[in-house]
Amino acid sequence: MMDRPRVFVTGGTGFIGSHLLPKLHQQGYALTVLVRSPSLQKIPGRPALPPETTLVTGDLSQPESYRSALKGHQALIHMAADYRVGLPTSSSARRAMYQTNVTGTLDLFDAAQQASIPQMIHMSTTAALGETQGRYPDETHQHNGVFRCYYEETKQIAHYFLQQKQQQGLPVNIAIPGGVFGPGDNSVLSQTIRTFFRGKIPFQIATTSRFQLCHVDHLCDGLIHLLNPDIQRQNFLFTGKDFSMPILFTLMAEIGKRKIPPFKSASSLNALAWLMDKIASLGPEMPLSQEALRIMDGSTYMYCSDKAKRQLNWSAGEPLQELTTFIQTLADEIAAEKRLAK
Asked: Which residues form the NAD-dependent epimerase/dehydratase domain (predicted)?
């Protein structure tokens, strides 16, 4: 029997990674996953690690912790990132995000190149390409330098430098997804849905900002396509259907047979967001931030995935139908919680 091709994965225990690993296992890959701790906490909705997965304890900020483990792998998939919105402006918080999203990422690909890994994938984000002003550009779109959150800035920097390395011969494909949802999602989207069905969202911010959503299974299918050795040093967008927060609140209200929360202007919340940022800098997590308001400024992050559809036969599935099912599932979970609490 031929040895299975070995893939080294970062972010494998995160939301997207947990769904990708079983698919890779089914495709016949042997998996090595970088983890910060061998004691893994099971998160509801996320698939368990496939059998025979090798865990390497290490950290992106310490290349020596994983460098030797890279040897002998045929592919690297890098998904680990520090994703937070509402980051305190303190230098320590920003330094930690930069260390993971930029320095740690570039160090990882340098180490992979030294280990002669022939196929690499970096998971970027449409935030790294920036706002689109209502248009649907392709992978060649360049960021205009207006950053609405520090996460966006760090991802853009990493994306830029990896493109430079790509042009210099680094065998890396760059995947560029939009928003992603599915079982085990703990993102702002999922938290908003849960909070809505708990009856704890008194208002919504009036905004025309738009973004795209795709089910995690379809993104994973796209990532696996990029392991094809015939696909070298290319970038692919994997985006779904357009949505906005008002559209989402309307959809949630219809599913839950509830009232749509009234609108409140972002400008009326500036002072409150400023105050919450000050409190957040002391440690506590706050439900509102100046970064969150900037994201709601009417900007659009919408892109065209025609290249992936044409060259990879990729499909975003049925985002509206799948999102409706996802919202209904979370609504049912909250309803069950309420029944148990009685």
From this structure: 7-228
| Digitized pLDDT (tens) for each residue of the chain, 342 residues in all | 458 999 999 999 999 999 999 999 999 999 999 999 988 878 889 999 999 999 999 999 999 999 999 999 999 999 999 999 888 777 788 999 999 999 999 999 999 999 999 999 999 999 999 999 999 999 999 999 999 999 999 999 999 999 999 999 999 999 999 999 999 999 999 999 999 999 999 999 999 999 999 999 999 999 999 999 999 999 999 999 999 999 999 999 999 999 999 999 989 999 998 898 888 877 777 778 888 889 989 999 999 999 999 999 999 999 999 999 999 999 999 999 988 887
Domain definitions of the chain by residue range = 6-182+214-240+301-317
User: Residues of 160-195 as b/e, b for ≥16 C-beta within 10 angstroms?
Assistant: eebbebbeeebbbbbbbbbbbbbbbbeeebbebbbe
Is residue 18 packed enough to be buried (19+ CB in 10 Å), middle (13-18) or exposed (0-12)?
buried
Q: How far apart are CA 218 and CA 16, in angstroms?
A: 11
CATH of 6-182+214-240+301-317, one of 3.40.50.720, 3.40.640.10, 3.40.50.880, 2.60.300.12: 3.40.50.720
Tokens linked to 303: 């892109």
